[in-house]
Predict the structure.
Amino acid sequence: MTDILDKQASNHQADPEQATWPPLQKAKTDIFDALCDSFNTPSAMRAISELISDYNSADKGALTIDQQLATGRWVTSIVNTFGLNGPATISDSSIGWSGIDIPEYAKPYLTSISQLRDTLRQQARSSSDLDPERLKHIAASVPPEGGSSGSSVAAAVPYQQLLSTVRSELSTLTLTPHPSLNQDVLQLCDRIRDVHLWDIGIYLEDRADGVPSLIRPVTKELRTLKANEKAQQSAKEEAKKVALVEREKAEKAKEEKGRVSHLDMFQTEEWSAWDEDGVPVKDKEGVEVTKSRGKKLRKEWERQRKVHEAWREANGMGAP
């Protein structure tokens, strides 16, 4: 789906009947379902990726011009809608997208930072005896100015400064050996990805099996995803705080309740006579407690007895 399709589109009148292609119809359905599912962006992007894979592997001779144009137009419109095609708008009728590129002057520095981080991360995760000398060796393997291709243009200054900052932070970890060195290195790796690079519009996508991290520009989609993740994390932390407060309240209430002896719990103005256990037998007017009311009071007394005895035991006290 390139400029060739764009040129074909300008000289071709689309036939809706001929534009039907099963993978395209499936992708449309999948995108619709994903966006209806609380705007499930990862699923939506996966649907686009699968469609592009289907198109690239399809026998182009078996596809009509209408099917190819319809696929190109639809994918481009979705990419435009998600804000992934630079300044292009939803109404842009062209086919294909330019994407968002990393400036050439930034690449030497970003490559150095990414390679340094990959090496540090791999060493910290696989080695149980990471030491300052090993870190110094790793730091020395990275050119201080992003290599011979480092740029001198003013726009490259933030990237130069970031490489210097990363090297400086790594240098502080090489001063003295300590048992948490591996963990400190992993935290530095996270900080490089999630703070330093993110703040200048760059995202590193970690990949498995020793494959170098993918250097990507921060897009509107990525910012939205990170904002959602941050909001969810904040909500979880707030929920934990609320739960902790409620738990402390419950513990305090339990403590206060346990302090009250079952022998004294009914010693109030509400009653005027009690049995040998302290259970009321007459109300404040001198009227005898009914049998049913007496049973309820006895049950309350028994519950409080258990609570109070448990409290005394927990506090190292004997029986009352």
The beta strands are 202-205, 214-217, 271-274, 280-283. The longest strand covers residues 202-205. The mean pLDDT is 84. The CA atoms of residues 282 and 312 lie 29 Å apart.
